[in-house]
Amino acid sequence: MDRAGAQARIIQLAIFALAAGGWYFVTAAGGVSRLLLPSPGEVGTTLLRLIQTKSFWNSVGVTFSSILQAYVIAVVGGIVAGYLVTRSKTAMGVLEPVLAGLFTIPLTLLLPLFILFFGIGPASKIAYGATYAFFPVALNTIAAFGHFDERWLRAAQSMGASRWQTFRHILLPGAFPVLVTGLRIGFVICFASVLGGETIASAVGIGHNIALSAEQMEPGRLYAWIAFVTITAVTLNLLITSIENTIVRRDRK
Amino acid sequence: MSATSPNDIAISIRNITQRFGEEGAPDSVLALDDVSLDIRKGEFVCLLGPSGCGKSTILNIVGGLFRPTSGTTLVEGRSVEGTPHTDQIAFVFQESTLFPWYTVIENFRIAMKFRGMAASEWDDRAMKALKAVGMASFARHYPDQLSVGMRQRVNMARGICVETPILLMDEPFAALDEQTRMVLGEDLSQLLAATGKTIVFVTHSLAEAVFLSDRIAVMTARPGKIKTIIDVNEAHPRSPDFMLEPRFSELRNQCYALLRDEIRATMAAQRDPAGVEA
Ligand SMILES: Nc1ncnc2c1ncn2[C@@H]1O[C@H](COP(=O)(O)OP(=O)(O)OP(=O)(O)O)[C@@H](O)[C@H]1O
Ligand SMILES: [Mg+2]
To answer: Mind listing the domains of chain B with CATH numbers?
Structure first.
């Protein structure tokens, strides 16, 4: 890590420490009701107790398998659909603005419809997350392959590249950075949609537990769940970034 | 000079017409109108003409990147039917077309892989070509770690490394400063003398055209035709002293006079687009 990077890391840690310290002092001073904001200690012990129960891991299992299924559907569907659209100029002209337009509609509005169609179980959240995440994946796939720099294709053609070689050595690495952006946005949306969907209408899963704890006025549990999701999200983000960096560094500087 | 047997001809362009878009459509462009030109083996021919007159289009047709609307092109006697003759022709394009996701050496390897050349030859040929342009120590760099000038030298070397008898160069030095341009021009003249390559070269620089060419094909404004062919009788490799000779400036002025009329015609056409395609 260079100096600027190290400096940034220190400042990030300081901000985190400040927030945690602030949380601790506010609750220790008794300025805020325990029902609204329990102390870090209480949240910590609740979380430790929670993770030893079977039902905790059941909920986690349901939610993450929903996210994974939704994401796989969105990625496969988005990339295939996006790529097919770029194969025709007409299709691109017609469909790209339509997809972009649809993506600006807050699909949350349609969540009740998904529940209606797919029921209160995980299926509705999977369908909802997959639909929502489909758009950024498809749109970025179109951007990556449809607005590809002609000069590279022309150069490859002049060297006698076959169709497959052009795809493998030119299109794919050239499109990769934009494609990855779509995958990343898609993942964030998938994660948020499934969890959000669960908090609004579900019978199982992390979101369900969060909504339930809030309803039942159990702040310790509520914040323990939120803390768990936060830690997981941060970990996943770090993981994805490092994978991305390795691939991008290998394929493109 | 003009009496040549068919065996001496590297490229024969016969009655090429190129129209982009359907005839009669509002965006239809007649880019080339019945262009014919024979280029001898080992000859350096410059295409000189106003912007948009179809110079790149000629190179692309000769290189087999697409089929012309009508007319034929023969390369070493074989007809080009919209498929690149990669064993005979290499391109160096207007802009640096190095692939940014590959290092310099990987860019060479992929160019040779696409041509189906044996993998055992890739690195030797790449390093030889890189040495020729003084870029051997940058083999493991990525293109965007190089300056524009260095990138274009690598780009040129990538065209040379495959050792085809014909090199098509579309404004390869356009992005370079005057001095680098001149030095690379000298290198190219030396390469020509050493290898006997046939080179078709597009440029907007009059001095470059005169300094490098055996013949300069001056083109008309769009629709492009060949207006005049100017012979430059001077053996390769040429030294910078050639530029100091009175003959050099005479030729340069002659080119300029021919071009000036065409550029004025283009500008007039742009001011009054209705009269253009009629
Ligand atoms: N793929 C294409 N589709 C439609 N029109 C094209 C296409 N390629 C070229 N043209 C048109 O054909 C004409 C000739 O283009 P070309 O690129 O050959 O010009 P040029 O002489 O190389 O110009 P410059 O010196 O600016 O590079 C231009 O008017 C251009 O707009
Ligand atoms: Mg051009």
So the answer is: 6-88+191-237+244-275 (3.40.50.300)
Q: Could you write out the three-class secondary structure of B26-60? A: CCCEEEEEEEEEEEECCCEEEEECCCCCCHHHHHH
Residue B198 Cα, gap to closest chain A Cα (Å): 17
Cα–Cα distance, A77 to B77 (Å, whole number): 50
Please count the residue pairs, one from chain A and one from chain B, whose beta carbons lie less than 8 angstroms apart: 61
Residue A107, chain B, CB below 8 Å: the answer is no
Rounded to the nearest 10 degrees, the angle between the axes of helix A122-146 and helix A54-86 is: 30
B218 burial via Cβ count (<10 Å: 0-12, 13-18, 19+): buried
DSSP class of residue B146 equals S
Domain ranges of chain A: 67-252
pLDDT digits (tens, 9 = 90+) for B17-64: 999 988 888 888 899 999 999 999 999 999 999 988 999 999 999 999
How far apart are alpha carbons B50 and B63 in whole angstroms? 21
Q: Are strands B198-202 and B215-219 parallel, antiparallel or unpaired?
A: unpaired
> CB distance B97–A152 less than 8 Å?
yes
From the centroid of its chain, how far is CA A241?
12
Q: How far is C-alpha A15 from the chain's CA centre?
A: 24
Do A165 and B114 contact (CB within 8 A), yes or no? yes
CB atoms within 10 A of CB A16: 10
Q: Which residue has the tokens 């498929």?
A: B83
| Ligand 1: residue whose CA is nearest its atom 1 | B20
What is the dotted CATH code of the domain comprising A67-252?
Answer: 1.10.3720.10
pLDDT tens digit at each of 253 positions of chain A: 678 888 998 999 999 899 989 888 888 887 778 888 888 888 999 999 999 999 999 999 999 999 999 999 999 999 999 999 999 989 999 999 999 999 999 999 999 999 999 999 999 999 999 999 999 999 999 999 998 888 899 999 999 999 999 999 999 999 988 999 999 999 999 999 999 999 999 889 999 999 999 999 888 999 999 999 999 999 998 898 888 888 766 555 4
Residue showing tokens 């934009």: A178
What are the backbone dihedrals phi and psi of residue B88, each rounded to the nearest 5 degrees, phi first?
-110, -25
CA distances from A86 to A72, A95, A140, B22 (A): 21, 10, 11, 23
